[in-house]
Every structure is written in C-alpha cells, then in structure tokens.
Design a protein that fits this description.
Order of helices and strands: EEHHHEEEEH
Number of strands: 6
Number of helices: 4
Distance between the termini: 19 Å
Helix content: 25-40%
Shape: globular
Radius of gyration: 16 Å
Length: about 170
C-alpha cells in the first residue's frame, strides 16, 4: 500500500491502519478503534472533497451544490436527497442508513457519490483506495471484488485520477 508517499507493507488491514492512524495500534479493538477510523474517514473526506472542488468543473456547480461541497470543519454531514452535481460528493457511510440516521442520497444526472466506509478496517482501506486517498497495491483475499459501492469500480473513480501530495493523517 502507498500512503503519504510511503510504501507500507502490512499483513492485515488493522496493521496498516496502525501505521496510518496515530495511536491506532495502541487502541483496544472495538469502539475506540471505530472512533479512530471515523475521525480518519472525516479527515480523508475533507481532503478528497477539497481536491475535487479544486477542479475546473467546480465552477459549473450551482450555489446550492457549492454549499454542500464546501462544508465547514465541524458541520454536520450533508443531508441531501438527490445529488446531481458535476463534482462528486464524498460522504462517510457512518452517518447514512443502515448505520446512521440519514437516508442515503440518490444520484441523478452527472452526479457521483464517493463513499468512505470506516465500519471495518478492510472496508475502510478499500474505500480509501477507491476515493484515491491512498493506493492499495494488494489487499488480502477477504476483500470483496464486487465492491458494495456501485458508482465506483474496483480501480477507483473513473475520470478523477490524482495523487495528492502530503495526503493522509495529520494534513
């Protein structure tokens, strides 16, 4: 796996997260590690969304779409019924059904939703790869080859290929 310009070799998703997330390895499995994954998911969401917003197509967004795409740091996750914006919307699954209390937005027109799923370490690394926050070179056979996130293929999001400099924890 490549993260923040570094190649990380790990035998499990938990071990990889122990390198990526501060103090993750020192946390007991369970709620504390889930909170750490959620915090890292929110950091990744903010970074990926900011990089997507920096593209030329952002100017084609409506004022309403821009308010969703430019969240404030401690703002609640967006509550959107339908996403039709030309810039993909990056969301964290924890806040949307079946895990959270919000309905998952539907996609219309050119809209795409890029999901980050911190529910399990494996799903977390898979979706961080799909939104291009890190590169997973090899994932254990336990990963699902038919990703649950249908608007993203197994190689990530089509049309948005970039490698953020300095992406990752602590940025």
């Amino acid at each position: 796996m490549l993260h923040d310009g570094w190649r990380i070799c790990a035998s499990s998703a938990e071990e990889a997260l122990g390198v990526i997330a501060d103090d993750y390895a020192n946390l007991k499995p369970g709620p504390a590690r889930m909170r750490a994954r959620l915090n890292l998911a929110l950091q990744a969401r903010n970074l990926v969304q900011a990089l997507l917003n920096a593209g030329e197509v952002f100017e084609q967004s409506t004022d309403e779409q821009r308010q969703v795409l430019l969240p404030q740091q401690n703002m609640a996750p967006p509550d959107v019924d339908v996403w039709a914006g030309v810039v993909p919307l990056v969301l964290v699954t924890s806040f949307y059904r079946p895990l959270g209390d919000r309905e998952q937005p539907r996609v219309a027109g050119p809209g795409q939703i890029w999901w980050i799923d911190p529910d399990t370490p494996e799903a977390f690394l898979e979706t961080l790869h799909q939104v291009r926050w890190l590169d997973v070179i090899h994932m254990a056979a336990a990963s699902d080859p038919g990703s649950r996130y249908r608007n993203l293929g197994p190689n990530g999001a089509a049309g948005y290929w970039w490698r953020p400099c300095g992406a990752g924890a602590g940025t």
